Every structure is written in C-alpha cells, then in structure tokens.
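FAQ: What does the model actually see?

It sees only this:
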Amino acid sequence: MARAGAQAVTADGAGPKSEEDWLMSQVVERGNMQRAYSQVMRNRGAPGIDGMRCEDLKGWLQGNWPRVKAALLEGTYQPQAVRRVDIAKPQGGVRTLGVPTVVDRLIQQALNQAMQPVFEPTFSQGSYGFRPGRSAQQAVLKATDYIRGGKRWVVDMDLEKFFDRVNHDVLMARVARQVQDPRVLRLIRRFLEAGVMHGGVETARPQGTPQGGPLSPLLSNILLTDLDRELERRQLSFCRYADDCNVYVSSQRAGQRIMAGVRRFLAKRLKLTVNEAKSAVARPWERKFLGYSVTARHASKIRVARQSIERLRGRVRELCRQGRGRSLRRIIETLNPALRGWMNYFCLTQSRRPIEELDTWLRRRLRCIVWRQWKRPKTRESKLRAQGLEAQRAWKSSVNGRGPWWNAGARHMVAALPPKYFTQLGLVSLVATHQHLQCSV
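And it is asked to produce this:
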C-alpha cells in the first residue's frame, strides 16, 4: 500500500487523488471495507448504544452504506456515543471499556487497516503490542534475553489510567505527522470526543481513548512512539507492549535515574503520569511482565507469574460454580477452552512444577464437585464401590464426616477417580498441552 501523501488511483475509478484526498479514499475502498467487515464479524462483541448486533450489520449496510460512505468522503460523518462497561480488575479497581456501535466499529476497523501501513514503518523495534507479526511472547523472550545478558534490574513502568488520560491534542499532533487528509483527522478527533453513555445519560469525554474500539490500540502506539524514541536515544534496552513498558539496566542506581527521567519526559511531552503504586525499580523476578516472570537463578528461566496462576484458579472456580447441577462431562467441556487458551498463552514457561500442581488442583476441584453431587453417605458408598473400592473402605470413606474439599484430595477419591478417569472424560491436561507446545516450537 502506498504511503500517505503519494498520488494514488482508487478502485472506484475516481481518478488520481491529491495528497489531502488519498487516505479517506483508501478507508472506504470496497476491498478495505470487506476486510473490515470480516474482522468485525470474527471479533463479534456486544451491541453499542443503538442495540444493533453483528448479525444485523449486513442487512443494515445494504440499505445505508451509500449514505455513510458519502458522509465519510464529505467529512461529515458523526460517530455515536460509546456504551460504558465497567470490568472489575483482578488486582482490584475497575477497567472502563467503551463499546462503540457495530457501524462505528466497522469504520474504526477500516481506518485501522488503512492507517497501519502508514505508521508501521515509524514504530520502534522495542514495541510489540498490537502490531502485525508481533506478540506478547516475543516481548517476553526479548526481555529474558536482556536479563540473561546481565541487565538484572528492571524499571517497571505502569502508566496511570493510560487509556482514560490520553490528551487529545497531543495525540492528534502525532497522528498529523503522517496523515494529511483533513477528513481522516477530523473523523479520528470525533471518535475521540464521542460521548460516553451510561445508565441512559451521555457525558462528554474531554480526554482519553477508551478501550473497546479497533482504533484505540493503534492510537496508543502512535502516541507512545515518542517514548520509544526517547528510550532509544538514551540507548536503553526496553520492551513495550501497549502501555506496559519495562526497561532493563545493570544497577539499581541506573534504574532510579531512568525512572525519574522518564517520569519527567512523560509529564512534559505526552501529558501522561506514571502510576507510582504499580511502578518500581526492582529485580525482574520480583515483578511480572505480560503475565510472566523469571526465576532468580542466574539462568533466569521463564515462569508464569504467581498472579497469573491465581487468576486461572479464580476463573476455574467461577466456571465450576456455574456448573453446579450439571454432569461432570459438561463441566469439563466448559473448562477446556479456558485451559487451552491459558496454556497456549503461557507456552513459554520453563518451570514444570507449577503446571503439574495446577493439573493436580484441577482434578481435586472436579472431585470436590462429584463428592457434593453424591450428597448422601449411601450414595457415596455405592459410587465408590462402583469405581472399584472395597466395600469396607467405601463405607468408611462415605461416613468419615469430613468436608468435600478434604475428601476430594483423600486417597479414596484419588483411587476412585484417578487422573486417567478425567482424561477419558476429555479434560485438558495442562502438562500434556505444554509438552506438545514445547515440541512444536
């Protein structure tokens, strides 16, 4: 795709486009809109304030797209307010999402696709978030290389409510470095300033770019590229994924100096604030990065951060509570997608023991559900005997007076429902999945 500012001929035969006209024509070009539509349908997502579902989008566009396209090309399109959704954070507090209407998501996706090739060459090698061909795992591997190379202190920076605090003027000045089309600039500004609807009341948004729209990740990279260039100018080793940035240094003193300098830079140049409570200069094994951490030994093995393990346990507890009254096979079918997704993300871990412990804990959790479902001692006795326990042992186990969790880890339940029992029911083994992923790397 040509860069902004070049002469171009659009697919609709409109002829050569000037420097100012080029980008919006790319946004509404038929092929670009078809790709955007396919992406929106893959992502699905909840309706915005108008209640329109993804399933309704195709029919709506058949009757309304010519009008919307004309408004985009004329620079008069006005986005609707976003629907506010508050999501509780695992560490406490609330993350506010802004859910655009399905039509606005389509337009944002089309904008993202047209702008990404323009800005991608300007982004730093130290930036990994929301970029084609880049991933969180690559950022973790690069960070580990820095640590193994002797940089055993980390400047862990968390930007305070980044998506809620973005200064619109600062952001738009950086977008305008590469985009000359005034209609595109005007449209992005309108998306930024679209109100937030909550409880039937719309409020203005003087700052921020709420998470939830396809355009926000690209805008965050555009804004934070200035931070990347400043770190590069200082010849620092860093990895950034969206607003999560770690700088790796050789001493605590150097880390403290860099933290102070970056704090001043962010406040002065980008109007952003470092969250002092969540930021620190520390040893890498005392912090987490993108859900991972490292061991304290010199080899610095990659491991899953403790908080990430606890988050999975919480998710499993939630799914198991929702599954009460259902068969064990149905509960396992509910758990499996979450287990596969978690292990696929944490496939880089080199510490096997936490994964083994999680597998053991998962099976105990399921045995606990089974023990509760059996309810009466007589039922438990017959079920244990049916699973191969001797009559005397089955009777004693059924009337031991202990609670479900104790019994779920006791020898009689492990003998009655061994690991292979759950494997036969289709339960995903985190250990086996990890081994498979390691072999395929």
